[in-house]
Amino acid sequence: MDFIKKIITAGTHKAPSLKVAEAAKVIENAQRDLNIAFMNELAVIFNKMEIDTTDVLKAAGTKWNFLNFTPGLVGGHCIGVDPYYLTHKAQELGYHPDIILAGRRLNDGMAEFIASQIVKMMIKNTVNVNSSRVLVMGVTFKENCPDIRNSKVLDVVRELQDFGINVDVTDPWANPEDVKRYFGKELLPMPVDMEFGVYDVLVYAVAHNEFTSISLPGINRPLIYDVKGLSDVCDARL
Fold it and tell me: Which of 37, 54, 95, 144 could form a disulfide with 90 if both were Cys (CB 3.0 to 4.6 A apart)?
C-alpha cells in the first residue's frame, strides 16, 4: 500500500473486501447516472413549460448545497453500463430496482427526444426537413476525450437520418477510422465550412474546447441546437 500511495498522489482507500470495492465503483457511476437522469427529466418538463433549463439551473446553483449536474447524453463504458451490473444482481436476488432502471430508461431515451426537438426547431423556422443538411459537432461520449464507446451521439444521428436528413459529423478528438467503423460515416476534418447554404442546422453535441472558437457567419447562419450549453448563440438547447 505504501508503494501505491507514492504513485497515486490523490490518495487511496483500502476497502475491506473486493466486493465492497467493486460495489463502491458501481454505485458511484449509478449515482451520476441518476443525477443526470433527473436533469434530463427536468429538461423535458421545462421544455413543455417553455422555460430555459440552463437559466433554471443557474438560478438553482446559487444555493450552496445544489448539486451541479446538467442534462445531456449519457454514454461511455462506465456511467451508462455499470448500473446494469447492479440491477442485474438485484433482480437475481429477487429485488426489482425501480429507481436505477427508471434513470437508465430516461437517459437512453434522450437521443430520440433531442432529435425530435431539432426537427421541431427546423419546422418552426420553415426548414424543409426532408433532404436538409445537419452538421453534428462531436461524436465522442464526453468532451475533450477520443473515446467513442457507447456514444449516444450515434443514436441522435440515426434518429435524424430516419427523418430523411443528411447528417455530417466532425470531431477534432475522435479517430476517423473508429468513427467510420462505429458510425458508418466519414468524419469531416475541422475547420468545417459554415457558410450559409452549406448546412441548415448545426448541433453542438459534445463540449470540446475547440468548438468554443468556431467562427459562424454573422448573418444567415445555420440554425443552432445546443445539447451541452456550449454557445450563447443558439436557437434551441436541451
Answer: 95
